[in-house]
Specification:
Blueprint: E1 4-13, E2 22-28, E3 31-36, E4 39-44, E5 49-55, E6 58-69, E7 72-73, E8 76-77, E9 80-87, E10 90-97, E11 99-100, E12 103-112, E13 119-125, E14 137-144, E15 151-159, E16 164-166, E17 170-172, E18 181-185, E19 192-198, E20 204-209, E21 215-221, E22 226-230, E23 235-243, E24 246-254
Antiparallel strand pairs: 1-6, 2-3, 3-4, 5-6, 6-7, 8-11, 9-10, 10-14, 12-13, 12-15, 15-16, 15-17, 18-19, 19-22, 20-21, 20-23, 23-24
């Protein structure tokens, strides 16, 4: 584990000087923390933050930043990493760096809740020319993941000289294993149509849309519930049941 040295630049607005004692402590390989006057801060490796602390009549503005490790300058400064599910089978991983020094690549590691350890699923090369950039860089990776349980993601950053560091860990929830369905009869219908909802574990909204996509009717429905649709003029309609990030649809015809 790298030993992080921390520099605190303190600027005081007052008629007298004052300073704040910052006590650093290592959280894990993905970040460190600092404590100022019983106020605790957490931040990622290479991430900067500022704070304003009021102590009586003295207001102190401080800038806390990891500067370098025992092995040399930090390869990545200001790493911000996020992971979220955008569809039932898609997880989007996004991260940003503020500065890169001799950075070779990021290795994306994933651990599902039924697996014993992290495994590398992809490598994304540094966008910085020759691994060096003083400008913010944005990264995106899409993971095909339809796991019904939880998944953990982290980045393993690797220098050109082979040294490595980890980001913090992000948790992504799994998809529901329940498959929703709509049963419609009769087809076509004359004055009314029956709709049965199955496969949902909480109340959901059932929409009746015309062929221009406008909402004509909507109903709150529960699992195994059958509702009767009436009052629809002749034409074609679409029934749509939204469940989280997915949806189920059926067409109906009124004569």
């Amino acid at each position: 584990m790298k030993i992080i040295l921390i520099m605190a630049c303190i600027f005081t607005i007052s008629f007298k000087c004052s300073s704040q004692m910052i006590t650093p402590s290592v959280l894990n390989s993905g970040g460190i923390s600092g404590t100022v006057n019983s106020i605790h801060f957490d931040f990622n490796l290479g991430e900067t933050f500022s704070s304003t602390i009021e102590n009586g009549n003295i207001v102190t503005q401080g800038l806390l930043q990891p500067i370098f490790s025992a092995q040399g300058p930090l390869p990545v400064v200001g790493l911000q990493f996020n992971a979220q599910r955008s569809a039932n089978s898609i997880v989007e991983l996004k991260w940003t760096t503020q500065q890169e020094i001799n950075n070779a690549a990021f290795y994306i590691e994933r651990k599902k809740d039924n697996e014993g350890d992290f495994t590398t699923i992809a490598m994304v090369a540094s966008k910085a020319m020759n691994g060096n950039s003083s400008l913010p860089l944005n990264y995106l990776y899409t993971d095909n993941n339809n796991h019904t349980g939880n998944s953990l993601y982290r980045l393993r950053q690797k220098d050109i000289d082979g040294k490595e560091a980890f980001s913090d860990i992000k948790l992504v929830n799994g998809i529901s294993s329940v498959l929703a369905s709509l049963k419609v009869w009769p087809v076509p219908a004359i004055d009314k149509v029956n709709v049965q909802v199955k496969g949902i574990n909480a109340a959901q909204t059932l929409l009746v849309l015309d062929m221009q996509g406008r909402v004509v009717k909507k109903y709150m429905v529960n699992n195994d519930q059958t509702i009767v649709l009436t009052g629809l003029v002749k034409g074609m309609y679409v029934l749509r049941l939204n469940i989280g990030l997915s949806s189920v649809a059926e067409k109906i015809v009124m004569q």
